[in-house]
Amino acid sequence: MNMNNEQQIDELLTKLIQEKDKVIGYPVAKDFDYSRLYEFLKHPINNVGDPYEDNTYKVQTHEMEREVVDFFAKLFRADPTDFWGYVTNGGSESNLYGLYLARESHPKAMVYFSESTHYSVKKNIHLLNLPSITIRAQENGELDYEDLENTLQLNRDKPAIILTTFGTTMTEAKDDVSKVKKILKKLAIQNHYIHCDAALAGSYGPFIEPRIPFDFQDGADSISISGHKFIGSPFPSGVIIAKRSLRDRIARGISYIGSLDTTITGSRNGHSPLFLWYAIKKMGVKGLEARYRHSLETAEYCKEELQKIGINAWTNKGAITVVLPKVSDAIKKKWQLATDDITHVICMPNVNKSQIDEFIKDLVKENKPEAIPNLNELELQD
User: Fold this and answer.
1) Burial of 77 from C-beta contacts in 10 A (0-12 / 13-18 / 19+)
2) What is the separation of C-alpha 379 from the centre of its chain, rounded to a whole number of angstroms?
3) N or C: which end of the chain has fewer CB within 10 A?
4) Is domain 35-281 classified as CATH 3.30.565.10?
5) Cα(271)–Cα(149) distance, rounded to whole angstroms?
6) How many CA atoms lie within 13 A of 46 on its CB side?
7) Which stretches of 131-216 are DSSP H helices?
8) How does pLDDT run across 99-118, given as a tens digit for each residue?
9) For residue 252, what pLDDT is reported?
10) What is the per-residue pLDDT across 144-187, written as a single tens digit (0 to 9) for each?
């Protein structure tokens, strides 16, 4: 490798270090240390095949992958005798798998999802060639249950696949799975499947008070989460948890690898399960809850500080995402803020009050009406 290549690597590293502390608009935790595992990057770890089945390729981390799935299955109150899952490359693949299981269980079903659903869902529905109907969202981003019921009423003759979201992209709204289940029961739609996209908030969902129903005991048939969001990882990852009885319907034996073909991809990154395993072993359930409490406190602080300078900031119940009016392009670019008609700050565990203070100062300094509503009515001290 020549000097130019070395310089390019050094410049990239410097840039990443400079930029990482200015990410408060995307759900990416950065407070991790996986140095204990660096030696494993020297090995071609491939988790090909079903993690719960033996196969002929032994440079893999299936044992750790099973422990990761078991951990989240228990956290999400899955039936101990009827659960299965694997570590995916992210929430989008996890959602794809949930919808794939749903389609194979109910080939003639209609899919229902809210307008606040993550953009990957529409892509997945298109890939699976599924008919679908978009349901209105409430003002806070949560599913409009009345619109869902009315729409289902018009299609009672068809099986229903309903995709709920536990932590929407912009406002971190959380759909109540138990309400969806009650609607299905009321309309006597017995052939149905509920997939919960919990990529953002699933890892801390069990700790939210008051509790918001989203897991298997509440009525979900499969749940997806992201590994790199709240937990944190140097590369994207996710987990899909489903019912083993449903997985069995699609399993096919592959002689080449001596295992069952039950996952979306063939070769699978075997490092992600190892890193997730390491993280949950270090944190445990109590550690995950502590991370959530810290993020919740930071989010409350952010909301209050924004309100002090006249910005109409708000949060959904139990959310670590603070919603505010759309900010300027300069602020958006500096703080890497996701912006739609609104802007949000996501208080991941690594986000601290000093970062929030600096962000607030930038808003005040900018002194623009669109960034600081009612600025002329405020007496601000720099």
Assistant:
1) middle
2) 40
3) C
4) no
5) 43
6) 11
7) 145-154, 177-186
8) 999 999 999 999 999 999 99
9) 58
10) 999 999 999 999 999 999 999 999 999 999 999 999 999 999 99
361 residue type, one letter: K
Q: Are 37 and 275 in contact (CB under 8 A)?
A: yes
**Helix, strand, coil content of the chain in percent (nearest 5):** 40, 15, 40
In whole angstroms, what is the distance from residue 61 CA to residue 308 CA?
50
Instruction: Give the predicted TM-score (pTM) of the model.
Output: 0.92
CA distance 169 to 157: 32
- Whether 371 and 331 have beta carbons less than 8 Å apart is answered as yes
Calculate the dihedral angle through the C-alpha atoms of 290, 98, 194, 109, rounding to the nearest 10 degrees: 170
Q: Is the pLDDT of residue 32 over 60?
A: yes
Domain locations in the chain as residue ranges? 3-32+291-365, 35-281
* 13: exposed, middle or buried (Cβ count in 10 Å: 0-12, 13-18, 19+): exposed
Q: What is the pLDDT of residues 340-352, one digit of tens each?
A: 899 999 999 999 9
Do residues 328 and 370 make contact, with C-beta atoms less than 8 angstroms apart?
A: yes
Contacts of 322 (CB under 8 A, 6+ apart): 299, 302, 303, 306, 313, 314, 315, 344, 345, 346, 347
Closest CA to 22 of 354, 372, 374: 354
Instruction: Report which of 154, 155, 177, 156 is spatially closest to residue 165, judged by C-alpha positions.
Output: 177
- Whether residue 6 is predicted with pLDDT greater than 50 in this model: the reply is yes
What does the alpha-carbon distance between residue 321 and residue 227 come to, in Å, rounded to a whole number?
18
- The class level of CATH for 3-32+291-365 reads alpha beta
**Which segments of the chain are extended strands (E)?**
84-88, 110-114, 132-135, 160-165, 192-197, 222-226, 238-242, 252-254, 259-261, 321-325, 342-346
Whether 3-32+291-365 and 35-281 share one fold: the answer is no
Q: Are 202 and 223 in contact (CB under 8 A)?
A: yes
